[in-house]
Amino acid sequence: MTFPFDISATDGRARTGVLKTPRGDIRTPAFMPVGTAATVKALTVDQVKQTGADILLGNTYHLMLRPGPERMERLGGLHKFMGWDKPILTDSGGFQVMSLAGISKVKEEAVTFSSHIDGSKHVLSPERSIEIQADRIGADISMQLDECVAWPAEEPRARSGMELSARWAKRSKDAFGTRDTQALFGIQQGSTFENLRRESSDRLQEIGFDGYAIGGLAVGEGHQAMCEVLDYAPQMLPADRPRYLMGVGKPVDLVEAVWRGVDMFDCVLPTRAGRHGQAWTWDGPINLKNARFAEDQDPLAPEVPCPASTDYSRAYLHHLIRADEILGKILLSWHNIAFFQALTAAMRTAIAEGRFEAFRRDFHARHVSNG
Ligand SMILES: C=CCOC(=O)Nc1nc2cc3[nH]c(NC)nc3cc2c(=O)[nH]1
């Protein structure tokens, strides 16, 4: 179903709005915490809710290996399983098969691979991926199966991956059919080639999707090269539908992508880097392992409305991380997710008030120069 996407304000290419789904509204620009194995690592769903997150990402690859699609359905689907009653977007599994699975083979018909957990054999076709996401997991937003070509890619290789993804887009849409409570997003590919990204966008629009993701980025090309693709790629996609940049990113990546017209993001960094002591603040990233925090009585970020950001001293967090205490991983993950939510909330307000350019300039001055 094409969920209503009400853009309430624009400022240059930046947009702010609401994607309305049966399970709740998603305020954009939106950051989706990643709930890989039916959990946002180290956090309860209540803690995630408290950060202001409107939607979570689930990973099809992990969930199809464990607990398995049919078991997930017998248990009532992912929302019931993990106790999260707001929207969930699932990825198609394609990307993680390439990066996590054992021997994988990509054929026209499907991707075959062996589980990184127990070596068992699995098949992921566009049709099977849709069945797992929409019918077994019960995702509110499903993603087409695609092929994310490694970077750097020569044009012929980038073309073949883009064309396979476009054929799989059609098969995904046909398998998804028409549903009145769930949506399907297509994925633009084409690596760093403008002509390929244009062809991909045109083929996706001919098929017609409820939203459009920008794939093939944040795969090692670096911030500068990613921004150069984002200088043109988002605008090739329909302006009235959500644009989702997959796997991105650091706070500065979000600001630069919103500036270029992106609406939705997902990234494991807030929780993954948090578990290793990294915290993002308005004054840039810091690592609590650093000795300079050993007697720092200040909280992480008094202006971020999360207990982990306001109620604990940096000295205490330094101690917890140095001691490899579980609570350290919990508090830094919680703070980082809350910071990413505070960042997207601040961008929504800046766009609504027509001052995103000033926001972007101040953000670079305060956050990036220190970072
Ligand atoms: C995740 C939602 C939907 O994803 C898919 O179903 N396929 C897909 N996932 C990606 C994930 C990425 N993460 C990064 N960097 C951390 N770059 C990525 C690129 C892709 C991509 O091109 N396709």
UniProtKB/TrEMBL annotation:
Protein keywords: Glycosyltransferase, Queuosine biosynthesis, Transferase, tRNA processing
Pathway the protein acts in: tRNA modification; tRNA-queuosine biosynthesis
Residue sites binding substrate per the record: 91-95, 146, 189, 216
GO biological processes: tRNA queuosine(34) biosynthetic process
Active site per UniProt: 91 (proton acceptor), 266 (nucleophile)
MF terms in GO: tRNA-guanosine(34) queuine transglycosylase activity
Keyword GTP-binding tagged: no
GO cellular component: cytosol
UniProt-annotated stretches for the region RNA binding: 247-253, 271-275
Function: Catalyzes the base-exchange of a guanine (G) residue with the queuine precursor 7-aminomethyl-7-deazaguanine (PreQ1) at position 34 (anticodon wobble position) in tRNAs with GU(N) anticodons (tRNA-Asp, -Asn, -His and -Tyr). Catalysis occurs through a double-displacement mechanism. The nucleophile active site attacks the C1' of nucleotide 34 to detach the guanine base from the RNA, forming a covalent enzyme-RNA intermediate. The proton acceptor active site deprotonates the incoming PreQ1, allowing a nucleophilic attack on the C1' of the ribose to form the product.
Family from the record: Belongs to the queuine tRNA-ribosyltransferase family.
Subunit structure: Homodimer. Within each dimer, one monomer is responsible for RNA recognition and catalysis, while the other monomer binds to the replacement base PreQ1.
Name this protein carries in UniProt: Queuine tRNA-ribosyltransferase
Organism: Brevundimonas alba
Lineage of origin: Bacteria, Pseudomonadati, Pseudomonadota, Alphaproteobacteria, Caulobacterales
Protein's gene: tgt
